[in-house]
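can u pls check wat happens w/ adenosine-5'-diphosphate
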Amino acid sequence: MLNIVLFGPPGAGKGTQSAKLIEKYGLVHLSTGDIFRANIKESTEMGNLAKSYMDQGKLVPDEVTIGMVESEVAKTPEAKGYIFDGFPRNKFQAESLDEFLEILGCSVTLMLALEVEEDELRARLLLRGKDSGRADDVNPVIIQKRIDVYNNETAPVKDYYSAQGKYIGINGVGSIDGIFGELCGAIDRNG
Ligand code: ADP
């Protein structure tokens, strides 16, 4: 199985690149943000709970997020592999993912981390907020909160995969196709 953790701060381009990677490699896209937003749209109990955190730029509680990822994986037993997009977002989630994949007899193959400067992130998120309909992309205070949460809670996940020799940093500034080429090169050399 080819299991990729596509990592990076909010606005790094994870969603855009995930869409291209799943097509090329035949993987299942598992975006925790997208699943939460689908649940918010359907007004499920989980969606309502997730919304109260997302609107403030905070992480949704681990037990909710991890349970959701596990049930999504269980829905696709034939998958050739996954692109985990927006997950894991802290060390506890990373450990839980390792334990869960071990039970399934597989593991994370690689973490590909898109690297983008904060000024560029703020500009991209504000631009996306103009037409994405995402409440968390409109308010600069919430955008900053998400970047802060990334720096404090999520960035350390790099060290977790680095210690396993699985971390690869990719420059997330450039053309979409150029960055895609870099990601594919890293997968083809290490996957
Ligand atoms: P972005 O990376 O642009 O912030 P996402 O769609 O990945 O967008 O996430 C949007 C929001 O969903 C996050 O700010 C957070 O509130 C919630 N979320 C997504 N993934 C997770 C996760 N793994 N753990 C906790 N909360 C999450």
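The two ends are 9 Å apart (CA to CA).
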